[in-house]
């Protein structure tokens, strides 16, 4: 990964959650036509993705109940 890409990721991490979500949606929209093959995923990678998604959804649910 280039230094510029690392800088973009670091800037992304500094965004507010709503901006992170909007940014991610826009990146996915712009890259959906690019050829991409991540190759096979390991059980650890699948497990980490599931844990991350659960934590994100839990955080969103907790935030919506506080409104």
CA gyration radius, whole angstroms? 15 Å
Strand content: under 5%
Output the structural class: mainly alpha
Give the CA-based shape: extended
Largest sheet: none
Question: What is the total number of structural domains?
Answer: 1
Distance between the termini: 39 Å
Q: Number of helical runs?
A: 3
Which whole number gives the mean pLDDT? 89
Record field, number of beta strands: 0
Series of secondary-structure elements, N-terminal to C-terminal:
HHH
Low-confidence stretches: none
Q: What share of residues is helical?
A: over 70%
The gist of it:
With 67 residues, the chain is mainly α. It is built from three helices and no strands.
How would you describe what is shown here?
Helix content is 73%, strand content 0%. With 67 residues, it is mainly alpha-helical. The chain has one domain (3-31, 42-65). The chain is extended and about 40 Å long. The N and C termini lie far apart (39 Å).
């Amino acid at each position: 990964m280039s230094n510029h890409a690392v800088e973009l990721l670091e800037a992304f991490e500094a965004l507010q959650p709503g901006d992170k979500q909007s940014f991610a949606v826009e990146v996915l929209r712009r890259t959906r036509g690019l050829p991409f093959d991540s190759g096979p995923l390991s059980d650890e990678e699948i497990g980490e993705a599931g844990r991350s998604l659960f934590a994100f959804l839990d955080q969103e649910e907790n935030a919506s109940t506080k409104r």
